[in-house]
Amino acid sequence: MDTIINEINERLTEVMSSLKDGNVKEAMTYSLMAGGKRLRPLLFCYTLKSYGVDYHDYIDVACAIEMIHTYSLIHDDLPGMDNDDLRRGRPTCHIQFDEATAILAGDGLLNESMNVILNMDIDSSLKVDMMKVLYDHSGVNGMIYGQQQDIYFEDHQANLKELEDVHHYKTGCLLSAPLILAGLIANKNEVPALKDLGFTIGLAFQIQDDILDVTSDTETLGKPVGSDIDNHKSTYVTLLGIEQSQDYANKLFKSCLEKIYALTLNHGLMIEIIEKVMKRVK
Amino acid sequence: MDTIINEINERLTEVMSSLKDGNVKEAMTYSLMAGGKRLRPLLFCYTLKSYGVDYHDYIDVACAIEMIHTYSLIHDDLPGMDNDDLRRGRPTCHIQFDEATAILAGDGLLNESMNVILNMDIDSSLKVDMMKVLYDHSGVNGMIYGQQQDIYFEDHQANLKELEDVHHYKTGCLLSAPLILAGLIANKNEVPALKDLGFTIGLAFQIQDDILDVTSDTETLGKPVGSDIDNHKSTYVTLLGIEQSQDYANKLFKSCLEKIYALTLNHGLMIEIIEKVMKRVK
Fold first, then answer.
1. Cβ–Cβ below 8 Å for A140 and B111
2. A2-278 is classed CATH 3.40.50.2000
3. All structural domains of chain A with their residue ranges
4. ipTM of the predicted structure?
5. Sequence-ordered list of residues with C-beta below 8 angstroms from that of B263, at least 6 positions apart, any chain
6. What is the pLDDT of residues B113-158, one digit of tens each?
7. Shortest Cα distance from B269 to chain A (angstroms)?
8. How far off is chain A from B192, nearest CA to CA, in Å?
9. Greatest Cα-to-Cα distance within chain A, rounded to the nearest angstrom
10. Cα separations (Å) of A91 from A78, A86, A107, A223?
């Protein structure tokens, strides 16, 4: 797993090196190379590997996914959004640089995520098919809708159904995209099943996130714990309590295993990466 | 010209209607439909028309260009950037809505600009070629670099060469892209000449902008006049004075005419649109 992370980091460094020097490039690099877990690129590479496809040929897609994820974190942390000072154990982008640079760094990462895919040496039709999935999942009918609803429910009480809907979009979209993209490359027939698996992983991931926000500590997590409570956010923990939330996460994990066994790929490899997502401590 | 503007506005409305309802969609629509001059889409449609190509088949490209332009305005106006309250004669996006919604609306417009092109019913290879131009021009090696340098020169004195460089990227990139994109569709051989023409138009446009900032009034312009002086920005007017700036703009306009006559297209139509850009009063 570490090998893939290193390969992704190396390629991200190469991608960034093609950009014009300045504050924005520095800020993009600062946030991108802050030692994130790379879960989304790993999900993509592992799914390809599980289908017996050499992920090296598509590592730029993994980079694009991580760039989109990082842009969303930079903008989420801005004073006008969540106003967070700490991310991945370091000052957030607008604290380390300034607000204008952080806004542009986010814009830059979204914009350059496209250029990475556009410049790949693969069929144009595959590029277009993959970008359709990626930018549908990250856009106003996907992740951005989730971010909007997340803000809405800071001032409004969410029930469990509404909370699940927020997370479906805010977290699920960009966690299911890697699986769908790998499916487009490796096995088009199984795309619907991969999508379903991806959203289940997304939900389990989010419940884990809510649990960690109250059971972990700032040092381990690299971001302030208890921020959900401070922001008056409804979470699985506030709605269900820790124990029931953990039960729900375990149930979803089991459901993921069943969905994996129904796919025609290397089950062991897929379980390895799903366990990484589920059993994380940060 | 008004017919094309109406057609673009109609198509933009259609494009927006496919998005999930909410604050972000409202804010995107508010800024997008605020009655902008649509110069960039007009440049694209007129260039196609001048080559004898039916622009209706490519109107989604015109929409994508305007969406990118609007996203850049929304983010430029944010408190963390230029902190402007007025745009196109109306409250800016973050004043009308709130900062979080304006950040997401900008992100949404950039993201959805891609989806508009990705969903077009044309060859994948043409889509990819056009998107390469568009997102290279709008990205960290293009418009975003210009925005970064623009901020840098708020605190640093720029000379004429540096100022021209800022505007080459900040304004020129997204004014030359429509011509290059039309060239990719209509006449690949003339793309380099179209690019050169586009950047000359961009420079003339910017000088005109600097002149209007001191000679016009807020009501006509729809945004505060004198903001360049308030922000201590170097402009053509502060460096050359109004008269010399006007001479320079006139010289560039003549140069544009020469460049147009060297192209194998309908010269009258191209001059019509260039005059619209040059002789604007707002």
1. yes
2. no
3. 2-278
4. 0.95
5. B50, B190, B193, B194, B197, B270
6. 999 999 999 999 999 999 999 999 999 999 999 999 999 998 899 9
7. 33
8. 20
9. 50
10. 12, 5, 19, 9
